[in-house]
Amino acid sequence: MTDLLQRIENTDWQLTTESMHQNGYAIIPNLLSKDECDTLISNYDQAELYRKTVVMARHRFGLGEYKYFNYPLPELLQTIRTYIYPHLSSIANVWFKALNIDISFPSEHSNFLQQCHSNNQQKATALILKYGEGGFNTLHQDLYGDLYFPIQIVLMLSEPEKDFTGGEFVLTQQVPRAQSKAIVLKPKKGDILIFTTHFKPEKGTKGYYRVNMKHGVSEVKTGKRYALGIIFHDAEK
Fold first, then answer.
1. How far apart are CA 87 and CA 41, in angstroms?
2. pLDDT 10s digits, 199-231
3. pLDDT at 150 over 90
4. pTM score > 0.85 for this model?
5. Does a cis peptide bond (omega within 30 degrees of 0) precede residue 72?
6. What is the distance between the alpha carbons of residues 132 and 225, in angstroms, rounded to a whole number?
7. At what angle do helices 2-10 and 75-98 cross, to 10 degrees?
8. What beta strand segments (E) does 17-81 contain?
9. Which ranges carry the Prolyl 4-hydroxylase alpha subunit domain (predicted)?
10. What residues are paired with 95 via a beta bridge?
11. What is the pLDDT of residue 157?
């Protein structure tokens, strides 16, 4: 994992932070290698890695399938979750302070997980998602319990326009007293997309106000689209 840690360390976190504050999302290019992406895809059918499979159509979540990983997480996922979290906790604390929310997130992920477990949230939330032709994911928020971390990430494992077409990542921004704004993103294979789980602060004439955001995936036109989601809080079930 030395190479991966170096890639995380070499990321321009100042630029990433600025993008998160301004847009509620940021893309880090080429954080994962092709081989790392392909290994995660090849492990999709190894049942022992996962605690739960969700067929999206059964729950009207969309069309596709995703699987939640078991603890302990694969080393690559554990490394990303542990070493990216501190960079994001400082962003989260700025957001909550701006919105006068009396919550402060610890700088170490292990300490935040202790808070989750004390709140009866002990299930792993890292998941891998698979979409075929016609697949999509409805707009949603990944909260999983009363205690949640307000930022999460998606790792794109497939190459747009080569492995699949369509399947864009969609964010909607619900501006108070106005129509919602749609944001369409196309991260490439190996890219990590960081985005808000629930909301972001926006500065107005009378200070900061809360802008709610949801995310989803547009319809896959051809091929197969794999992605991996890392949520930093655990789930109740």
1. 27
2. 999 998 889 999 999 999 999 999 999 999 999
3. yes
4. yes
5. yes
6. 7
7. 20
8. 25-28, 50-55, 62-63, 65-69
9. 23-233
10. none
11. 98
- Rg of the chain (C-alpha set): 17
Is 222:164 a contact under the CB 8 Å cutoff? yes
The candidate with the shortest Cα–Cα distance to 37, out of 196, 234, 225, is: 225
Residue 1 pLDDT greater than 90, yes or no = no
- Across the range 14-22, mean pLDDT stands at 97
Q: At what angle do helices 75-98 and 109-118 cross, to 10 degrees?
A: 80
For residue 6, how many other CB atoms are within 10 A of its CB? 10
Structure token pair of residue 116: 């989750």
Distances (CA, A) of 235 to 37, 61, 142: 25, 18, 10
Q: How many CB atoms lie within 10 A of CB 183?
A: 16
Taking alpha carbons only, the member of 24, 15, 16, 19 closest to residue 175 is 24
Please enumerate in sequence order all residues whose Cβ is within 8 A of that of 48, keeping only pairs 6 or more positions apart, or say none: 70
* 183, 171 contact by CB (below 8 A): yes
Strand partners, 127: 68, 229
